[in-house]
Amino acid sequence: MKLHPLQIKLLSLAEEDMLSGLSLREIGGLVGESHPQKIKYHMEKLEEKGLIYIDQDSGQIEFLRQEQQDSIQIPVYGMAQCGQGNLFADDTMDDIVSFPTKLLGRYQNNVFATQAVGNSMYPKINNGDFVIVEHQITFEENKVCLVLADGDPRIKQVMTLDNRHIALKSFNDEFETQILKSSDVQILGIVRKVVSEI
Are residues 53 and 74 in the same domain? Predict the structure, then answer.
């Protein structure tokens, strides 16, 4: 794995737990870089490569040791099972699969995988692709989410229309945007990664 010289310095400091709680400017002072945006860029690259984990809430920066870096086990649910109320119960899993942490980047906690059915999200998500979903009950505007609508699990781009309605949009123009009452849609999580094969 080829690293930029600045990334090597940052990784060394992360291994010694010297970065947590510091501002970008303070970190820059430790590695001789005066531009905070460059520090941010290279920190994000290290996280994408699965070498560090940055907790956005606490500011903690964790060095991922080799045994942590290789892979992480994620439960896989079938689309039909995603519609059940006990979605995250162990007995509803199809499988548990190891995914490379490099692939998952920062999304390694509170995630599960499920398989896309149909072509409504083509070309970004194809029929049979696996999506890595970060479990949460609220959506982020215009993000692709796994939702439960009218009892059916769906992968859609979610947008707010007004206080009572949301739109479920497909990327494939052959599929119409669905307008539903917010109360009729349950958010199961946000799609963070798409994987063609596992």
Answer: no
What is the three-class DSSP state of 88?
coil
CATH number of domain containing 29: 1.10.10.10
Q: Which of 19, 37, 68 is the last residue of a domain?
A: 68
- pLDDT at 107 (0 to 100): 75
Closest of 70, 102, 71 to residue 3, by C-alpha: 102
Distance (Å, whole) CA 112 – CA 106: 14
Q: Could you tell me the sign of the dihedral formed by the alpha carbons of 133, 129, 73, 69, in that order?
A: negative
30 compared with 75, residue with greater pLDDT = 30
Pair 75, 41 in one domain: no
Asked whether residue 169 carries a pLDDT value surpassing 90, the answer given is yes
Which pLDDT value is given to residue 20?
A: 87
Q: Which domain holds residue 144?
A: 70-195
Q: Hey, which bits of the chain come out as E strands?
A: 52-54, 61-63, 71-77, 95-100, 111-115, 130-135, 144-149, 152-160, 165-169, 178-181, 185-195
